[in-house]
Amino acid sequence: MAAGERQQLAGRLRGFGTTVFAEMSALAVATGAINLGQGFPDEPGPPEVLDAARAAIGTELDQYPPLPGRPGLRQAVAEHQQRFAGLTYDPGTEVLVTAGATEALTAALLALVEPGDEVVVLEPIYDSYAAAVAMAGGVLRPVPLRPGSPQPGGATHWTFDEAELRAAVGPRTRLLLLNTPHNPTGTVLTRTELALLADVATAADLLVLTDEVYEHLVFAGAEHVSPATLPGMRERTLVVSSGGKTFRTTGWKVGWVCGPAELVAAVRTAKQYLTFVNAGPLQPAIAAGLRLPDTYFTGAAADLQRKRDLLVGGLVSAGLPVLGPEATYFATVDVRPLQPDGDGVAFCRSLPERAGVVAVPSVVFYDPAHAHLGRHLVRFAFCKRDEVLGAAVERLRGMA
Q1: Residue 383: is its pLDDT beyond 60?
Q2: What average pLDDT does the chain have?
Q3: In whole angstroms, what is the distance from residue 72 CA to residue 79 CA?
Q4: How far is CA 400 from each of CA 239, 317, 344, rounded to the nearest angstrom?
């Protein structure tokens, strides 16, 4: 092989090309379609948060913040965890500010996973998880979530098989990576499911990394419970969240990780060589958001639930069975009534021409061994303005 033909990408990252979000967003721009693929809101965040950012820009807060994050934000995160989860963390040693939840998760995996260590994760898997495990030299052990029957109100709860979970844990398993509320399915793990996961983690002495970025965007009938609140779990669990989804500021990339001091110190060691620090003037703004009254958080969830119902109604009218979400920004559909071969990728690539809308094929969230479980599924985002959702619904109904 000539030097110019040599594969430049390291072997551990081969297979990780441009993300499907970039492909589908580019397709939306090229076709003028309504982008319901990538999960970002198109409305501004709360004024209290935006005003705090504006006030900070142009001051000394534009410069490097401390490596662990600005003290005011770390204090606000600790207060938030106590207020909403009953978890007590020392803001000085047990809270670390990161460049979004993605950096928190990646730094944790780089810090805690040795080459060859196994990471058990519930599938479908948000796409950055597999890449981060690969960068750490770890081995992914996915356990599929499967949809159950629709619940009252139309939501569908996805769950795992206990035998498959226990079979995935072996002598090389190092860490259990959880995501609740779960993207892309929109399911919220129940206390019973979390108790089983906790039992598996404690029996095998696993570390637990939990992604809770949709913690406040939970709909009626479901309850978010942080895995760290279960008996025996705080001392082995790193809790990750961010302000992007809750405050509609996804581009700010302000996240955090909370946990025992020795685990947070390990994550900080990796994090300092990734971004070092970020978002200096935005950190006080997220602190202001975390201190908003309860009515903000309940109102945000209620408004998003209303948007969910608007889009779900349109999807059903278009002839697409919906696996309704219990939380998050997303609704999943089965495309087989309109795509008889069940090819979700082909459906998404043709959707801009067929309906002027862009969505994301769920198969990209599955390990190749389990791709058949998600091949016929497609994810739509409903975190958009009412008029955008209304226009999308009208276009989708035209396919019926």
Answers
A1: yes
A2: 95
A3: 11
A4: 43, 7, 17
Q: What is the pLDDT of residues 370-380, one digit of tens each?
A: 999 999 999 99
Q: Are 158 and 187 in contact (CB under 8 A)?
A: yes
Would the CA dihedral through 62, 64, 67, 70 be positive or negative?
A: negative
218: which DSSP letter? B
pLDDT bracket for residue 15 (50, 70, 90)? confident
Beta strands in 194-319 (DSSP E): 207-211, 237-242, 255-258
Q: What is the pLDDT of residues 17-61, one digit of tens each?
A: 777 778 888 888 999 999 999 899 999 999 999 999 999 999 999
| CA separation for the pair 210, 192 (Å, rounded) | 17
The sheet carrying 360-361 orders its strands as: 322-323, 330-334, 377-381, 360-361
CA distances from 272 to 46, 107, 125, 215, 240 (A): 30, 9, 26, 26, 17
As a whole number of Å, the CA-based R_g of the chain is 21
Helix or strand or coil: residue 327?
strand
Angle formed by the axes of helices 100-112 and 261-271, to 10°?
100
d(CA 305, CA 300): 9
Q: Which amino acid, residue 307?
A: K
Q: How far apart are CA 316 and CA 18, in angstroms?
A: 31
Q: Which residues pair with 255 in a beta bridge?
A: 98, 242
Sign for the pseudo-dihedral over CA of 263, 268, 123, 36: positive
Q: For residues 341 and 375, give the distance between their C-alpha atoms in angstroms, rounded to a whole number.
A: 10
Neighbours of 43 (CB within 10 A): 11
* Residue 183: pLDDT band with limits 50, 70, 90: very high
Beta bridge partners of 380: 331
Whether the bond between 124 and the residue before it is cis, its omega within 30 degrees of 0, is: yes
- In sequence order, the β-bridge partners of residue 80 are none
- The residues facing 207 across adjacent strands are 175
**CB-based contact 37:239 (threshold 8 Å):** no
**274 phi and psi, to 5 degrees?**
-95, -85
pLDDT at 315 over 80: yes
Please give the average per-residue pLDDT across 97-110, as a whole number. 98
Residue 3 scores a pLDDT above 60: no
Instruction: Say what the pLDDT of residue 35 is.
Output: 95
